[in-house]
Amino acid sequence: MTDSPTIREVTLRTGIPSSALRFYERRGLIAPSGRRAGKRVYGPDIYARLALIDMAKLAGFTVAEIAAVLDLSTGLPREHWQAVARPKLSELDERIAAAQRARDFLRHALECPEPDAARCPGFQAKLAAHTEALARG
Fold first, then answer.
1. HTH merR-type domain: which residues (predicted)?
2. Could you tell me which of 85, 12, 82, 88 has the C-alpha nearest to residue 47?
């Protein structure tokens, strides 16, 4: 791999399809640094930039939200990033809490000594807790 990887090299290294890379280009998230033998090439920072995009997506940002704060020329302006990141942090905390409840629910169902997990008091308690969480929104 070179300091200026082709779109194919980026795809092979990251697993991100070339169609997604072209989509990111159209949305202003990445830009090729030029062409080599008629193929797009990217700068050496492409992998870090794609990692940032992926991390933002994992945090719940849409591609449009990422594009709104990620400036190709200046990077990630702090004031823009903070304005969008603060609300995402609470959304992420809520998703983590829900995933932990789901994990605990499944773990209990798998490890429950009762012959019918649905009749287990611990199982029922977890369902009740989730029912309350749903009612809170």
1. 6-72
2. 12
Structure tokens at 92: 């992420």
φ/ψ of 39, rounded to 5, equals -110, 145
- Strand, coil or helix: what is 40? strand
* Arithmetic mean of pLDDT, 15-33: 94
Q: What is the pTM of this model?
A: 0.73
Question: Are residues 88 and 40 located together in one domain of the fold?
Answer: no
Tokens representing residue 86 in the block: 């603060």
Domain range enclosing 82: 78-137
Residue-wise DSSP of 82-116: HHHHHHHHHHHHHHHHHHHHHHHHHHHHHH--SSS
CB atoms under 10 Å from CB of 91, counted, come to: 12
The CA distance from 53 to 67, in Å, is 9
